């Protein structure tokens, strides 16, 4: 057996440990795999393979948190060719709004799980270094840590990708919701995410959050409403809340003054277009698609009404 410092830990778990192995040496890798395949049954085998991110390509080696997935780029420099957008990403709008809330409330703290860049909290950390916590790749701990801060009167915003929060769902249920603690969950990458891949698609958050008895579930239809929902979450201090927002850029909505949102009335939707016969009820980012359909079929849509709800529970009876 090939062993190294730390192998005893795996052996104590009953694993046959081999490693560490240089993951960039293909010949060694093939040899080890062949030997393991030919070995008599010894129970579970753990092959410890060590690799270096971006090995052999200097731009990728130098970018510790980038180039996991890439668009078209210049192979000489590593510069990625991205289409310039006229608006910022929803992630950046969230970060700007949270900064504005923290400027007037020093009880607001932010938590992420080794995703400062992905969640936008790197901007928040630069502005409030003592109010931002990176707990590492440990979503379960992030949730329980946020719950603990809430018990002491702080206002935690736990920013975790929608699909990644699934890892900490037990903690969301038992440590936050059942205790009715005012933890705020900012769930980025809600819905389909394109280039980020299927593991990042936030397809289940509405279901797994809306079924909880105390959770307020929100989804903005645009970047301006996202800012209002950040303000709403900051104002909710008697129960947990969450708001989900998509990957990508805003639609160009008029932002609130100084990027400071205003708390919304919980559970109330609003009518965007009056009609008499057909009603389209939208929730979250799909509302913009409803409005596009309405405009493209304007001749017929005079008899069609569009209603929008920003909350995933207790559908607004007034709109219905």
UniProtKB/TrEMBL annotation:
It is an enzyme of class 2 (transferase). Its EC number is 2.2.1.7. Keywords: Isoprene biosynthesis, Magnesium, Metal-binding, Thiamine biosynthesis, Thiamine pyrophosphate, Transferase. Its cofactor is thiamine diphosphate; Mg(2+). GO terms for biological process: terpenoid biosynthetic process; thiamine biosynthetic process. Residues 88-253 form the Transketolase-like pyrimidine-binding domain. GO terms for molecular function: 1-deoxy-D-xylulose-5-phosphate synthase activity; metal ion binding. InterPro entries: Dxylulose-5-P_synthase, THDP-binding, Transketo_C/PFOR_II, Transketolase-like_Pyr-bd, Transketolase_BS. Pathway: Metabolic intermediate biosynthesis; 1-deoxy-D-xylulose 5-phosphate biosynthesis; 1-deoxy-D-xylulose 5-phosphate from D-glyceraldehyde 3-phosphate and pyruvate: step 1/1. The keyword Cytoplasm does not apply. Belongs to the transketolase family. DXPS subfamily. PANTHER family: 1-D-DEOXYXYLULOSE 5-PHOSPHATE SYNTHASE-RELATED, 1-DEOXY-D-XYLULOSE-5-PHOSPHATE SYNTHASE 2, CHLOROPLASTIC-RELATED. Homodimer. This is 1-deoxy-D-xylulose-5-phosphate synthase.
């Amino acid at each position: 057996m090939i062993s190294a410092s730390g192998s005893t830990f795996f052996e104590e778990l009953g694993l046959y440990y081999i490693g560490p192995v240089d993951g960039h040496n293909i010949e060694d890798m093939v040899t080890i795999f062949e030997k393991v395949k030919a070995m008599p049954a010894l129970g579970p085998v753990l092959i410890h393979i060590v690799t270096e991110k971006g090995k052999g390509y200097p731009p990728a080696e130098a970018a510790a948190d980038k180039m996991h997935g890439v668009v078209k780029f210049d192979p000489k420099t590593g510069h990625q060719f991205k289409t310039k957008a006229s608006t910022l990403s929803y992630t950046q709008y969230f970060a700007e709004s949270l900064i504005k809330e923290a400027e007037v409330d020093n009880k607001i703290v932010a938590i992420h799980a080794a995703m400062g860049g992905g969640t936008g909290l790197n901007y928040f950390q630069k502005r409030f270094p003592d109010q931002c916590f990176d707990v590492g790749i440990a979503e379960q701990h992030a949730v329980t840590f946020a719950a603990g801060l809430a018990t002491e009167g702080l206002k935690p915003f736990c920013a975790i990708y929608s699909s990644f929060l699934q890892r900490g769902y037990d903690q969301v249920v038992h440590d936050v919701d059942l205790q009715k603690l005012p933890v705020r969950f900012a769930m980025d990458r809600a819905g389909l995410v394109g280039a980020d891949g299927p593991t990042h698609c936030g397809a289940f958050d509405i279901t797994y959050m809306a079924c909880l008895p105390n959770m307020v579930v929100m989804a903005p239809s645009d970047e301006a409403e996202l800012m209002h929902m950040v303000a709403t979450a900051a104002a909710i201090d008697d129960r947990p809340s969450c708001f989900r927002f998509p990957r990508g850029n805003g639609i160009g909505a008029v932002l609130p003054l100084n990027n400071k949102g205003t708390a919304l009335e919980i559970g109330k939707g609003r009518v965007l277009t009056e009609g008499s016969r057909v009603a389209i009820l939208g929730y979250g980012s799909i509302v913009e698609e409803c409005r596009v359909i309405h405009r493209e079929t304007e001749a017929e849509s005079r008899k069609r009404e569009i209603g929008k709800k920003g909350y995933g529970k207790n559908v607004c009876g007034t709109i219905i």
